Each structure stands twice: as C-alpha cells, then as structure tokens.
Amino acid sequence: MIHLTPADYKTMPWANGKGVTVEMLRVDGEAGLKWRLSRASVVENGPFSIFPGIERNLTVITGPGFDLVGDQRLQARPLVPVAFAGDVAIAAEGVAAPSDDFNVMTARGLPLPEVSVLDGAAQLGAGGTLAIFALAAATVNGQALGRYDLVLTETAAQINGAVIAVRLFG
Question: How many CA atoms are closer than 13 Å to the CA of 76, on its beta-carbon side?
C-alpha cells in the first residue's frame, strides 16, 4: 500500500492557462499517459483544456458545482462523478462560486475507471489498482488518512470515512 499526502503532490498550470492543477499521481506507459489523479478549482465560466485520447471523470468535492457544456450538457454536482471525453471541447457554465474537483484521467483504450463516493464503512474487493482519496479523516485497512490523502493498493480495502474510491485498470 502506498500512502501519499498533499506534501507529495505537484502543482502545475492548466494546459489552457486558466488555473492550476494539483497532480497527486501520474502513471505513464510507452505511449504516454496511462492515468492521472488530480485536484483543481473551477472559479469562473470558461473552457476546459483539451486532452486528445484521454477519458475524464470529474467529481466536485467542494462548492456548488457547475454545468459542463459542449456537444451535450452535463451537470457537475457535489459528490456525483461525471464522465466525459477529454478531446471534445467543453466549458464550465453556471459557476456561481468556486468549486474544487477531483479528476481521473485515463488513456482511451484502457477500461474506464470505476469511480464511487463512499461515506462510512465499506469493503472493496481486490482487482486492478484501488486509489482511495480521503475527503476528510478516514482509515484504509486500519491506516489513518488525513483530508486529501491518497492511498493506492492492489489488494482488498476496508474503508471507514468519506472517500472517493477509484478502481483503475491497465
């Protein structure tokens, strides 16, 4: 089990220059990005960066949320994961107040990640890589996590607390 804290994360500007991303973990393969976990703040209406060949999943973790508008309109609401293609033009609309979000990016061609928001006690079976992001103090397999800590494991996980659990494949 790998335990990362905010001190381990890297801050970088958005590809479109309109904000910053806190990259928690990035895994690359021979063809480039396999998957990435990050946090960002949406503070105003505007376009999202384009990521060719990438599938995205966004979960608002603080704030009221906003709409994602492009070929279709998607609602990004608190603690409800929403998936969309990274290479389609999409913009945030209806930003009434800042919203922080947790992001999962995976290379197209890999199985889509399973993203769920859990609150309380839960048992997750083994399979793929489990990434568990603590929304508040929590425990994973008895190990204490602080707010915004991230745990990665290839084994089953006993969770207690408010977390976003991501199962990644490939």
Answer: 32
Walk me through the domains of the chain, giving residue ranges and CATH numbers: 7-107 (2.60.120.10), 114-168 (2.60.120.10)
Q: Name, in order, each residue with C-beta under 8 angstroms of 64's C-beta and a sequence gap of 6 or more.
A: 78, 96, 97, 99
What's the pLDDT band for 107 if we cut at 50, 70, 90?
very high
Residue of 145, 64, 139, 142 lying closest to 100 (CA atoms): 64
> 3-class DSSP state for residue 23?
strand
pLDDT at 158 over 80: yes
User: What stretches of 19-149 adopt beta strand conformation (E)?
Assistant: 20-29, 32-42, 46-47, 54-62, 66-69, 73-76, 82-85, 91-93, 99-107, 114-124, 129-134, 138-140, 143-145
